[in-house]
Amino acid sequence: MKRFLPILLLVFLLAFTFGCKKGGKEKSASDVEANLNATVEEYAKANSVSAKITLTSDSNEVIDVKYNIENGKIKSLATVLTDSLGEVSVYVKDGVCYVARYNAPKEKYSPSDAELTSIASDYTLDKYIKKALDVFNKQFFAASSMTKVADGEYKFTCDLASLAVADDIPDDEVLEAEAQIEKLKAMDSIDLTLKLSGDKVKEFVGTFVKEGKTSTIKIEFLSLDAVTIDVPNASEYTEKTK
Q1: What's the pTM?
Q2: Which CATH number among 2.60.120, 2.50.20, 2.60.40, 3.30.2320 corresponds to the domain 29-223?
Q3: pLDDT per residue over 1-26, tens digit each?
C-alpha cells in the first residue's frame, strides 16, 4: 500500500495545480486596442484626473497633470512642465489662477468663466492624448503585429510599408491622413507598448526611431480620484497687471 502513496500524492498535486489554474482567454490585439480606446475615453470624460506625460528626444520634457472639473470648467488644477530650460506651471485654486514661466515673474489673477473653460481644454490630459492618438490610431493598429512582453504588457510593432488610409476616413480628411502616413513611413520604426491592469491601460509608451535617433512619448494614467491642489510658494505670486 505504501508504494501507491507517492503516486496518489502526485495525482492529487497535478489535479490541484491544473484544477486551480485561472481561466479566461488571452487578450487579442483587438482586445488591447479596445482597452486603450476605453481608457482614453474614460480619462477624457472624467471630472478628476492625475496623469504624467514624458517626452524624450534631443531634449526631455515631463508634464504632470492634475485637475478637478465642475460643470465643464476647471475647479482646481496643477499642470507643471519641466524641460531643459526649467519649469512652466499653471495652477488654479479657490478661483485664482497662478502662472509661472521659467524665470519670469510669477503672476496670479482671477479668471473669468470663459477662461476657466479655456483652461479646461488647454491644460488637461485630453489635449496630449489627442496628439498621441493622431499617430497611434486604427491605421497604426491595422498595420501592426502584437507580442505579449509580460503579464499585462503588450507591444505593437508597425509594418510601416503596410500603413494605409482607413476606408472610413471622411473625404475631407483623406489628404491630411495621407500626408501623415508619408511622414510616418519616413521613420525607421514605430512601436507602442501598453501596460494594463485588468482592462485598464496604466502606461502608454510610443517609440519612434529615425536615422538612428530615438524619441518616445509616455503617458501614465495614474488616477481618476479627486485631487487636492496645493500651490507651492503662493505668496511669491503678484497680481497680474491688466
Answers
A1: 0.84
A2: 2.50.20
A3: 444 334 433 333 333 333 444 445 78
